[in-house]
Write a structure and sequence with these properties.
- With 630 residues, this protein is mainly α.
- Helices cover 34% and strands 7% of the residues.
- It contains 18 helices and 10 strands.
- Helix 1 crosses helix 4.
């Protein structure tokens, strides 16, 4: 656990610097009056909240931590054929060691990025390069434990302020542990301030044991925290700027997610040997989500689903001076350090084929939606395209599809720009088309526009100096909560009609609420007669609604589907245009020879369900065992 211990020791040192500990005086050139008393950071709400604020800056940005970023590692997208250093490429090759910075010379992975720096300091330059989950989590856990151990020093505070401090610390301790657990399995659950000079070894717990401890932290946090900081005495100074502060809704959301993950087949197998859902944990998840959605449905929170005509506001802002996206649907995300540049010169360019991109910066790393994943987008009538009653026709593959298909996916013939300088305003994604270069354009016959403003191309220059365009993705949004509730309630009860106390919605109602928002017909009756058939539609719904937001890899893993060929392979679509081409209504255009071809075959085994731990860490203690197969 060498690196693991190093992060804890680094946290001790950083905390020592923060507190002005005398052990650091040999290394600091400072005057005596600059010493800070050990009680100073904790003595009142303002100071203690400043101590807590550092935790917010240690939430890594998974989507914008590098110049270009890959965070969809399931069957959802594929990177340019000439790129071999991004994490998505390494995942495709089965090289899961790539998450570790020792095996990632470019720094493109978000789990263990760069030279760790726990404190936000603009003088460090591109601070986002220094925020990886592995170091941030271990440091953050220690910061939480230090705060909790010093709560008795908070003497100048109201009861409400004390609860807010404790609630935030408990939430972050649970969150950092949960984020690590979902990738690595059961780990030591650190709930005390460990002595960096003593024995730091702790045995790995089972996944369920870890989940139980995280649940205690999330539950306690939910009981302590307010729903909306702006409606309390806590917001005297920060009123109107508390949207991202940890609250009761966030704590309940992660309490439910923590339990649902523990209930899932992969995690249940790790703890009990059973590959089915654990109904006990599913019920706990349903109860947590039910409590949350009961509040939302009654209007008791500041959260609600965004109308679909404004769905772009969930993912980006345009011409709003770098405003963070999310609107009323955002539950939890990290901070922004440099929102515009990270979007303009990094994330946005990954989705635009070179011809339509910026003339200087475009065409570097293109991420294309896999054809097999786009197939999950069904028809407007709510049926999957594989259903014989859906009406899908491979001679008109883009016609009458789920409205989210038209919002998210660029398909052949879509109008990219009406700027007269563009010779090919309607994109050519047919076989041999101008936008089918495997290195600089689409590798699959599709491009992604879910996170892009319509003017984001090199001809309209909608991502220029003005107006400002900023993409901000989240770890969790409200639509995800509805779908997780549906899964938990269905699995707990064994039926699509299952529901949890406190929530007026059944599992089926929750899925249909998301579909109704998007203008799609509800789950067809042929999929509501059994739990298995309902789950097939629920999994498809998660794939569509949460597409390309970083969820798919963990969903496939926890469902024990990662090794199945239908989810392991990545395909492109091949076809030619047929008949008269309609540039104004490309969805009605006909094609011929439509078929899919495998372009990446991922050969996974059971070991790929968990990421490998660092060898240096495992060599320190016999109790810190490596994951199976690695």
């Amino acid at each position: 656990m060498k690196k693991y211990f190093a992060y804890i020791k680094a946290a001790c040192l950083c905390a020592g610097l923060f507190l002005g500990a005398t052990s650091c005086t040999d290394y600091l050139d400072k005057s005596e009056e600059s010493d800070i008393a050990e009680t100073e950071p904790y003595k009142n709400f303002t100071n203690f909240q400043g101590f807590v604020e550092v935790l917010y800056s240690n939430i890594p940005l998974f989507e914008k931590g590098y110049w270009t970023n890959s965070f969809n590692w399931g069957d959802d997208e594929v990177i340019s054929a000439n790129i071999n250093y991004h994490m998505v490429y390494k995942i495709d090759q089965g090289d899961f060691w790539g998450w570790q910075k020792e095996f990632d010379g470019w720094g493109t992975g978000w789990l263990d990025r760069g030279a760790f720096d726990p404190y936000f300091n603009p003088s460090n330059g591109e601070i986002r390069f220094h925020k990886g989950l592995w170091p941030c989590a271990w440091w953050g856990i220690r910061q939480c434990n230090m705060g909790l151990a010093n709560l008795d020093k908070l003497t100048d505070a109201t009861p409400e302020q004390r609860k807010a401090i404790e609630g935030q610390l408990l939430f972050f301790r649970g969150w950092f542990h949960f984020m690590l657990m979902q990738y690595f399995g059961g780990l030591p659950y650190i709930d005390e301030v460990m002595n960096a000079n003593g024995q730091l070894a702790r045995p790995r717990l089972s996944y369920h044991e870890c989940a139980d401890k995280a649940a205690e932290d999330f539950r306690r946090a939910a009981d302590l925290l307010p729903i909306d900081w702006d409606k309390t005495s806590l917001s005297v100074i920060t009123n109107g700027n508390n949207q991202r502060r940890i609250n009761k809704v966030m704590a309940l959301a992660y309490l439910g997610k923590n339990y649902l993950w523990a209930a899932s087949p992969l995690m249940n197998k790790e703890s009990t040997g059973s590959v089915s859902y654990n109904r006990e944990y599913a019920q706990k998840a349903a109860d947590a989500f039910g409590e949350l959605l009961g509040l939302v449905e009654s209007g008791a929170t500041q959260y609600q689903l965004v109308s679909y005509d404004k769905i772009g506001e969930v993912f980006y802002s345009y011409g709003q001076n770098g405003r963070m996206a999310g609107s009323t649907e955002l539950i939890f995300r990290g901070p922004e350090w440099d929102p515009w540049q990270n979007t303009r010169y990094g994330l946005a360019l990954q989705y635009v084929p070179k011809y339509y991109s910026h003339p200087v910066d475009g065409g570097g790393n293109i991420l294309s939606p896999c054809a097999n994943y786009v197939d999950f987008y069904g028809m407007a009538n709510g049926l999957p395209i594989t259903d014989p009653d859906s009406g899908w026709d491979k001679t008109h593959p883009w016609k009458d599809r789920d409205p989210r298909f038209y919002n998210d996916i660029v398909f052949d013939g879509c109008l990219i720009t009406d700027n007269y300088q563009c010779a090919v305003p309607n994109i050519e994604l047919f076989t041999g088309g101008s936008a089918r270069d495997v290195n600089t354009a689409s590798r699959t016959g599709y491009s992604l526009k879910k996170f892009l403003h319509p003017t984001c191309n090199g001809f309209d220059d909608g991502w220029g100096w003005s107006p400002q365009f900023t993409i901000s993705l989240s770890y969790m949004r409200l639509a995800d909560v509805y779908l997780m509730y549906a899964e938990a309630a269905a699995q707990a009860s064994g039926s699509p009609s299952g529901k949890a106390g406190g929530c007026p919605l059944s599992a089926l109602d929750a899925v249909n609420k998301i579909r109704e928002r998007a203008g799609v017909e509800g789950v067809n009756a042929k999929f509501t007669g059994s739990l298995d058939s309902f789950m097939s539609e629920l999994r498809r719904e998660r794939a569509v609604e949460l597409s390309y937001e970083g969820h798919r890899f963990n969903d496939l893993r926890r469902w024990l589907l990662l090794t199945s060929p239908e989810y392991a392979n990545k395909t492109c679509v091949e076809f030619t245009r047929s008949g008269e081409f309609d540039p104004k209504h490309p969805e009605n255009n006909a094609v011929s020879g439509y078929h899919e071809e495998v372009i990446v075959a991922r050969n996974y085994t059971d070991k790929h369900y968990w990421l490998p731990l660092k060898k240096s860490d495992c060599n320190i203690s016999a109790d810190f065992k490596q994951n199976p197969g690695w």
